[in-house]
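During the no-cost extension, the postdoctoral fellow (Dr. R.K.) reprocessed legacy sequence entries with the updated structure-token encoder. One reprocessed record is reproduced below for audit purposes.
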Amino acid sequence: MDLNEAGELLIQQIRQTSALEWTAVVFGVSQVLLARKNNIWLYPTGIISVVCSSILFFQSKLYAETLLQGYYLLMSIYGWANWSNGSASGASHITRSQQQEKWITWGIALLGWGLLYGVLNRFTDSDVPILDALVSSTAWAGMWLLARRKLENWIWLNVSNLVAIPLLLYKQLFLFSILTLILFVVAIFGYLDWKKTLYTSDGVS
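Re-encoded structure tokens follow.
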């Protein structure tokens, strides 16, 4: 496929994008931008995106993706409550992951990868089960860290984005690959902003 064909396909995809899908995408991008600013409003914004995405995936009979959105919804609710909690058990400040949290994060990523790969490989007709599973499992790990307001969430979310970009291109989902590239860049600045906040203030939003 040459550049002209790719451009025509992208324009066609944009024209065919439903209002529900645009809502999911716009609020999803807004969520990442708000997260970069360390703003708690990322969670209600993200919940809107998740709900819209769940409807779209269910209508498309992508039931595994629908369940994945369910995980995102639970993490969004948990994160919203955790960020609002000003006690010692809450996440009112940006912090770095402790050693135990690092082990848990790796466990989520690796065990999730193996579990998802097994399901995709055995019960679906996926032709990219390894990469598809890796995108989701690293996103799981990143969302868990985001809910706990940990600096390293950006690293895990960008591992997911980095794998997702070529995967989306392979699937000829050019619009989503461009959006993921944008999110990748935003996440880099999110990491730098959070790191600066961590070392120049107490990290309270």
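Helices lie at 3-16, 19-36, 42-59, 63-84, 99-123, 129-147, 153-170, 174-200. Residues 83 and 91 are 5 Å apart (CA to CA). The remaining legacy entries will be reprocessed before the final report is submitted.
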